[in-house]
Amino acid sequence: MIRRNNPVLGFVLIALGACSHPAAGENNGNSLDIFCGTLIDGETDSPKHQVLVRIVDGRFAEVMADASREGPYDLDLRDHICLPGLIDLHTHLTDQPGDTADLSVYYQRSQEDQLVIARESARATLLAGFTSVRDVGTYIAWTDRALRDEINSGSAIGPRMQAAGFYLTVPGGGGDLVIPGYAEESIPVSVRQGVARGSEAFADRTRLAAEGGADVIKVIASGAVLAFGGVPGEPEMTPEELAAVVEVASARGLRVAAHAHGARSVIEAIEAGVTTIEHASLIDEAGMRLAKEKGVTLVMDVYNGDYIAREGREQNWPEEFLRKNDETTEAQRQAFSRAVELGVPIAFGSDSAVYPHGLNARQFSIMVQRGMTPMQAIKSATTQAARTMGWEDRVGRVAPGLYADLIAVREDPLKDIASLERVSAVIKNGVVYRAP
Ligand SMILES: [Zn+2]
Fold it and tell me: How confident is the model at residue 2, as a pLDDT?
């Protein structure tokens, strides 16, 4: 159930007073008129001014520039800049950063315990302005699906989600939760659902994910930073295994997201037909050119290296993780700059869970420092992200027919992109979750 005593919703309901805007989670038959001083619509490069955004039944019905300032409006954002709800293509809403210090907590927790954490993360993410996410892996299998279903039914507050169900990974690979000092027999099967070796086994695990209700398939192609024993630059899955996953996934209309730091794995994953390369820290020139040629999107989590280096050390994360983070952070940022120069498609993905949920937007500043214009960075988290998810007809733009997901900030993000870290209004599906 929506918690009616929720302080933010309570505030919003009071702030909006007598107007007939929809209560949380309900939007049937309701309309909401919003006045935006400026609108960055996610589609065009030039912002519109004095815009009336009319929402009917949870969708944008009308977007009219140069509207009268008179109103009346249900939500008056004349001092604000409105944007489409933001999209993060790389979250792990079910997990949290503090647990990286001791991953064995996932051996002990029940799915219900994990969901209690996940609901808070989902709520923080939505209130930070991220109205859609692609959630690319959870340690306790299917916790992401449970969270997605709760959000869709209105019993939890959070972004629209695409869920992966579990990681597809080789034994001991970046998505396999083996921890030094723990015998394999003592590890619960719930954290090893997607562990496979060989094309047939990977095809089988992919079918399991698809039939269980995954929206996207996540493979760990190369070694990982935050896992024991893996080498980020080295392949873990073979080209044949990657191809087997893509074949099963695409036959079921699902896209594949490939975790790949190493240059060789990046190329092998692209050639296998994946839709996105996650991290791409050590991608080379050939990989970038191939990604551009094939229209494969890079999802480069260029902020969290700073968080790991500082907070991870404070929290005593395993030394091996900290070392691998140091080895990939700057390399990834340089690769990001080059990929921007070359015009490779790049979509916003933060790897939140590595750092706290709700701070997703911190990544925008690094993206702009490393070569994107503020408008490119905004599009990476709106139109580009929506296209990459296959949701371009639902989200990512403020245009009639799309879901009414809208945010507002006080300062112009085209002048200072960090203003996206201070979102003052959040509307999802025509429901106001945060208002100034
Ligand atoms: Zn991740």
Answer: 34
